[in-house]
Every structure is written in C-alpha cells, then in structure tokens.
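Thread amino acids onto this structure.
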C-alpha cells in the first residue's frame, strides 16, 4: 500500500537553521506539509535537505505568500 504524505501547505523560507545546519539552509525555500497538531505546539512540518519531512520549531521559518503560478511551479519541482 503506498504511503501518502499530508497535504502541502505552501512554502516557508528558513531564517535560522536552529542548530540543524545539515538539515536546513538559511534563506532557502522549503515545502510545508499540513500538520494541525504540530502547529498547536509551535512546530511546523518541513521537507528538509534529506527529502523527508520533519518537525521543526516554527520560529525558524517565515511563511511566504506566493502568486498562484509560482506556487504551482514550486510544488511541481518539490
């Protein structure tokens, strides 16, 4: 049975690697996966440099509001 990922929830830019320099690059865009439970704890689910999704403190990122066309292109690429 195929594993399904949670639904995409846009993109964020990393503003601080927070002690995870191998997993996060400052000023890089990362796809976010929806995780409402994590959000209530101040966490965000990000697909990091490993290509897997992990929880990180939300304070390490700033959410981006992107035009629809750019969002579509980035989602295809990620």
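Threaded sequence (78 positions):
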């Amino acid at each position: 049975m195929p594993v399904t990922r949670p639904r995409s929830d846009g993109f964020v830019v990393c503003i601080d690697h927070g002690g995870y320099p191998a997993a996060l690059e400052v000023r890089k865009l990362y796809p976010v996966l929806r995780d409402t439970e994590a959000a209530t704890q101040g966490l965000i689910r990000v697909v990091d440099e490993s290509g897997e999704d992990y929880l990180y403190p939300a304070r390490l990122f700033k959410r981006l509001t992107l035009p629809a066309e750019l969002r579509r292109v980035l989602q295809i690429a990620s």
